[in-house]
Amino acid sequence: MERVSDVVVVRGEAELFERTAHLFATATEVSCAARDLHTWSVAHPTAPEREQAVRTTSVRKMYLPGVLFDPALAEHLRFMATHGARIRITEREINETILLDRRIAIVAGDHVAGVRSYTVVSSPELVQGIQSLFEAAWAGGTDLESYQARFSELGAREILEQLASGCKDETAARALGVGLRTYRRRVAELMELLGASSRFQAGARAREAGLL
Fold it and tell me: Strand, coil or helix: what is 161?
């Protein structure tokens, strides 16, 4: 452990759990930003405890689109949302952070020799700054239900199949029964939805998710 005033650095999830379990147990407001659910697995209760934990705590969670590509992770999110958690998806890169009762911030660091570090912050000034960054990202996110509905509305699976086939845009548009401009607009919107910077990356993410 390394300590500098109101900032504590711990190594690995075991030490993180040891030093913060009591904070998670008593928190009434939890805000979380992560690329996927694996980052904060230390903070996830076991299945029998999840429903009660969500009902007694104000929970906000924000993830990148890739979290929906894993059926098990997507199911976990739907479970949490059903029982009161507010879930949002964002295409923007985010700092993986947990905020507890707006007075404690836990920031995930890099992996070093296979072990990830976590910084636990209790300084009011620092926590307020981290909270502000989270709120800005949260405001720009999309509710889980709306995000999933938009995916279906775009005809995402059909578009992905056309992209995977390698056919020209004109051919794909005719196959889907839409105009060329409409098809290209939907492709652009789908890339944004997937958080992809290129058609190739969109296809790769879709294959990883089992959509192709």
Answer: helix
